[in-house]
């Protein structure tokens, strides 16, 4: 019997790797086995197609290609030009953007490119203007001093971390928190929703250079038309980081006021979350910022990853096919079914539900911290991550929340019936887990008690739930 192309490709690749370092080949095989068996509810993860994965394992990885298409600092980049131009074209067509820059290695890198582009565009500095015309070597000591002073203390207004914002939107563990004087907007304590009047008020008081929208843990749509109006009212550049929900924009689930591309000056994203491409980032913008954005490498990025740009072109071509719109709609249908299933069983959800791909559980009602819940679920074969909820009393490390998302399970083909079964498994684990205590008898925020037999039983049920939905069905590693 002859093997199909996907099995042959991956088996052969592993055989070649095994001849050099068998432990790496074994780990790759084990990773597939683990992913096949676990109920993956990590909202930021997905499963890229075999074509996308295979596009990354080749000699494009060997090539240096600093610069942009047709303007490289290295010779022999004609084939890199081909794949970079293709990826950019697919991105422009898919999202309706005037310009796409597909080099960023990750979402964080895409944000750095955007921040620099905005600073270079907006900050009126003679020294900066000189630097931008590539006369960096002509800058005097005084120029550098002036430049540093002018760039520091620029103001950024973004969503607060505990309301679902991201570290790269001006928070201290990320360089953006050191580059910018940051203030954040939260959500309404009663509804959990963004209160646009409060955002407008904060913008009027703070007068940010950059207004950022976008999130990693907000389960609702954002009205980007209103956010743009707020930015315009204070002369701010409006940036949207759609890292999490790019797939819903690509699949036309988020349209009109909820599609960031026509409203923002600049949009950044990852390519590996709901968009289902290779691990990487991307920037979209209008013609005004295009030149600055294209200076991303070497301004803030290392040499581009041509193998990943090739994979981006493959994944973006997939996202332009009609079945991707169907996929995006099923992601949201599944998230809503999961939310309803949890609410029906008494779980408290931030905002009471969802209109995107993610659901944020407040597990305090089960008497647990996010950390205890995350571990108990993991023991039971359910992979999630803990996440702060608004005004979280347990802080960012232990938290009171669990974030779950449906892009990965939807890729496997699970539907609303399986989401109700998933809600039942989650509720059973959480309601059967008790908070533990420290040796001195004080309550612990990390320890928990869960009957191993129950964890085992739920694990088996989770695996059973997945049996009708094989992951990479055409890949048989033998
Ligand atoms: C995931 C995420 C990022 C970072 O992406 P990486 O590829 O991990 O660097 C940036 N912004 C938001 C909103 C995200 O959710």
Give the gist of this structure.
The protein is an alpha/beta fold. The chain has helices at residues 5-18, 22-37, 50-54, 78-95, 107-122, 126-132, 141-151, 176-179, 196-206, 224-234, 246-250, 287-294, 296-299, 306-319, 322-344, 370-379, 395-398, 407-412, 416-432, 452-467; strands at residues 39-40, 67-68, 71-72, 99-101, 154-159, 180-185, 210-214, 237-241, 266-270, 281-285, 348-349, 358-362, 382-383, 385-387, 401-405, 434-437, 443-449.
Task: Furnish the topology, listing elements before pairings.
Layout: H1 5-18, H2 22-37, E1 39-40, H3 50-54, E2 67-68, E3 71-72, H4 78-95, E4 99-101, H5 107-122, H6 126-132, H7 141-151, E5 154-159, H8 176-179, E6 180-185, H9 196-206, E7 210-214, H10 224-234, E8 237-241, H11 246-250, E9 266-270, E10 281-285, H12 287-294, H13 296-299, H14 306-319, H15 322-344, E11 348-349, E12 358-362, H16 370-379, E13 382-383, E14 385-387, H17 395-398, E15 401-405, H18 407-412, H19 416-432, E16 434-437, E17 443-449, H20 452-467
Parallel strand pairs: 1-13, 5-6, 5-7, 7-8, 8-9
Antiparallel strand pairs: 2-3, 4-10, 9-10, 11-12, 12-15, 14-15, 16-17
